[in-house]
Amino acid sequence: AQIRYSIPEELTRGAFVGNIAKDLGTDVAKLAAANLQVLSDSDSQYFSVNVNTGVIMVSERIDRERLCGQNPRCFLHLKLAIENPVEFYRIEVEILDINDNPPEFPSEEVSLRIYELASLGARFPIQPAQDPDVGTNTLQTYHLSANDNFNLNVKARTDGGKFPELVLEKALDRELRAFHHLVLTAEDGGSPPKSSKIRITIQVLDANDNHPVFDKPSYGARLVENSPLGTLVVKLNATDVDEGPNGDIRYSLSSHNSAALCQIFAIDEQTGEIRVQGNLDYEEATVYEIEVEAKDMGSPTMEEHCSVVVEITDVNDNAPEVILTSFSSSLSEDAPPGTVVAVIHVRDRDSGEQGKVQCHVSPDLPFQLRKDYEHQYSLLTSTHLDRERVAYYNVTISAWDLGSPPLSRHTILPITLTDVNDNAPQFEQASYEVLVAENNPVGSVLVTVSAADPDSEQNSRLSYSILRAGGTDPGLDPTRYLSIHPTSGQVSAKLPFDYEQTTYLQFHVEVSDGGSPALRNRTLVHVFIVDQNDNAPRVHFPRAGEDSATQFRISPSTVPPALITKVVAIDADSGRNAWLSYHLVEATDPGLFSVALRSGEIRITRVLQDTDASAHELLVVVRDAGEPPLSTAVTLVVLVEEKGPEALQGSEARTTDGGGLPTITLYLIVSLVLISTVSLVGLAVLGVRCL
């Protein structure tokens, strides 16, 4: 079963809601015996049941606005449970609204700002009041205090909300009344009705109906060019009789000014001061006319214009300019004096005496300036030039004006002299002397001749060649033995030299440059061949075959120091390489014979004994003094016989040539004299050349 009750909100605790025993038609005692229980659907227990009487009572304060908000109907649900038998009863309690809340505005006061030129019928919404009650207890109407300019209009929405609006019925005049104070009252429909009020303050805003006015229609100023940045030009002054933003003035340069002018001048928007922010150049502009506008901050803004005329005074701030009308950076070194090198135009952007220019070139240079006519000069050569002495000139053209103080400018003209072939090559030495060891390897570099040519490029490219020297042996062609590298000057051997055939060679080396026509020069080269120990000693006496020995016979009665024989040898080399020494290397009886170190004489050193052998074999080595030394060996056999000669006789000697020894000795002496003479002459010539 379901039972419904209706009670107003905000009842006190213990207030009667209903009698459940009566409404169910049940005895109260039966409900108590049936263990009656009350169950609520909400977290709070707003109701309780007296089991002895069956009465439902309020146990907590009930606020319908908190429970159900703006919902027009609000219900609380209970369940009653009894036992024996088990039965459930659903109870629905409707909470009725009472007028316990007045309408409330969000704030106690609101301010509006309305322009005095607002059109009639303009609407100005006011934040609505809020009333949490429902039905007739909620907000029903608004009331506006009496005034001359505004009426109240209330807009109703489909959800029942009501929004107040102020409607302008009469034009505002700030000059008559700047502020309006109104009271808006919100009222609900309760009995008695409840209400609340909000104070409305309306500020009438001034309309921008006056434009700024300058104290002068135009301004004038005078500045020198190159005035420093920040220099004050003029201070403008404009006034506006309006108030607030309508009378607040901002200054600016008009859009009619060029972009270049706006980069030179700047204006302070607050004070109206015009200052220099760029470079003032008399040569670019002598007068500047600046358009300035003054605007108020009204809406819409109003503005006024004026002009500022700035005259610029010239100062000597421009150095002369040197302009090359014609210029050749290269000049032949054989150019005659008076040759035009450059044509120069000079100018100065200043005016009057400050714009007159004079030019000058250093007198230390082989150049001079000639004034052709006003503002034009020619640069000429003043003397003969020599590239080998000075190959490059930096000619400084100095130009200065007649200002006070004068300004100057220096222009450097780089001039390079081009070469002509006016210098012959020169060798580093007038002659060269070379010592070359014989048996030199083919291709070895004997000497490097070097020449220099002060000319440049092709005129200084040198080529070397070998020529036969005058007065030399026609059979000694130097090109047969030697070759020369055409560019490096290295002289190399084509064949190995043999001192025994050629001891001295001379030739000319010619060098020519690459000019047209080519210039030439020569140097003399002396080549001295140095002997090497390349020949072993050769035995002339005694003569013997490769595998045979020469026999000599002596008497047993030969007494020391009898000469047995003499070994004669010669060496084709010269100097120390031909100095020979004789050595007895092997002997049957080493103590019986001796060999003289330099002469090669073999002598008996003691008396022969009966116990001595009848034949003695001697091995004699002939060695030269070269490095390393070369040697030749000869074998002699000495026979001891009764009938033999005592000295210098042997079977080979008698049978071949009895008078051979004196002839060989003569040949040896002559050879030694010739070799010594040639050596001395060569050393003398070498010494003279060195000196």
Automatic annotation (TrEMBL):
<dbReference type="Pfam" id="PF00028">
    <property type="entry name" value="Cadherin"/>
</dbReference>
<feature type="domain" description="Cadherin">
    <location>
        <begin position="428"/>
        <end position="539"/>
    </location>
</feature>
<feature type="domain" description="Cadherin">
    <location>
        <begin position="6"/>
        <end position="105"/>
    </location>
</feature>
<keyword id="KW-1003">Cell membrane</keyword>
<dbReference type="GO" id="GO:0005509">
    <property type="term" value="F:calcium ion binding"/>
</dbReference>
<keyword id="KW-0677">Repeat</keyword>
<feature type="domain" description="Cadherin">
    <location>
        <begin position="323"/>
        <end position="427"/>
    </location>
</feature>
<dbReference type="InterPro" id="IPR002126">
    <property type="entry name" value="Cadherin-like_dom"/>
</dbReference>
<dbReference type="GO" id="GO:0007156">
    <property type="term" value="P:homophilic cell adhesion via plasma membrane adhesion molecules"/>
</dbReference>
<protein>
    <recommendedName>
        <fullName>Protocadherin gamma-C3</fullName>
    </recommendedName>
</protein>
<keyword id="KW-0812">Transmembrane</keyword>
<keyword id="KW-0472">Membrane</keyword>
<feature type="transmembrane region" description="Helical">
    <location>
        <begin position="664"/>
        <end position="688"/>
    </location>
</feature>
<keyword id="KW-0325">Glycoprotein</keyword>
<keyword id="KW-0130">Cell adhesion</keyword>
<feature type="domain" description="Cadherin">
    <location>
        <begin position="215"/>
        <end position="322"/>
    </location>
</feature>
<dbReference type="InterPro" id="IPR050174">
    <property type="entry name" value="Protocadherin/Cadherin-CA"/>
</dbReference>
<dbReference type="InterPro" id="IPR013164">
    <property type="entry name" value="Cadherin_N"/>
</dbReference>
<keyword id="KW-1133">Transmembrane helix</keyword>
<keyword id="KW-0732">Signal</keyword>
<keyword id="KW-0106">Calcium</keyword>
<feature type="domain" description="Cadherin">
    <location>
        <begin position="106"/>
        <end position="214"/>
    </location>
</feature>
<dbReference type="InterPro" id="IPR020894">
    <property type="entry name" value="Cadherin_CS"/>
</dbReference>
<dbReference type="GO" id="GO:0005886">
    <property type="term" value="C:plasma membrane"/>
</dbReference>
<feature type="domain" description="Cadherin">
    <location>
        <begin position="546"/>
        <end position="664"/>
    </location>
</feature>
<dbReference type="Pfam" id="PF08266">
    <property type="entry name" value="Cadherin_2"/>
</dbReference>
<dbReference type="InterPro" id="IPR015919">
    <property type="entry name" value="Cadherin-like_sf"/>
</dbReference>
